[in-house]
Amino acid sequence: MRNTFLQSDSTTHLSVEVIWLLRSCQFGFGYSVTGECRSLLYEVLFEITSMLSSSEVVVQPSLPIQILQIFVAMLVMDTWQYFVHRYMHQNKFLYKHVHSQHHRLVVPYAIGALYNHPLEGLLLDTFGGVFSFLISGMTARTAVIFFCFAVVKTVDDHCGLWLPGNIFHLLFQNNTAYHDIHHQLQGTKFNYSQPFFPIWDKLLGTYMPYNLVKRPEGGFEARPIKDFKDK
After folding, report:
1. How much is the pTM?
2. Choice among 3-12, 94-103, 131-140 with the minimum mean pLDDT
């Protein structure tokens, strides 16, 4: 059964949900972006979304369609973030003046997921979120769910903890250990993929396999496979 909601006045339900979308971007992907750029981008997104609403009735798609849209958004975000992230490592100027700020986290921790340079926050995260939203065709209501999920996943990827029963570790190969390798000195040119799937790393030869090694003092350590590391 599809969910339908109507405009009631100049502040439409669509507008309200877009505002919630922008708020989720602001506190998630746009966390470190300067206020002026962020506000301008969100205003543009609001105008585009408003133009796409050609009638007074906004129909929330069926659940299977929403799941498909979220999956498409995941692929779009992964694609955008892989190539922008990789380029920030390959371009010496961008790495030195922009992306290296995030790699001060040799040992990642949860809220460090969003610790980055303002320009990186804009290019990597905010634009990636915008493209995911527009290309997938999802409604603002679905987008709020997607962005909240993506933020939680990103935070978990940087938490540095391998907890039993963690659903992200069960469902995603791109997880805490996977991204921990990227933050290690020998892994900075590998495992660029984030936040969902390792597809691009495996297709383009930047995947670094690893083992989880149990430490005597407790817990696990993600270590690159020696034969691969020595190549």
Report:
1. 0.76
2. 3-12
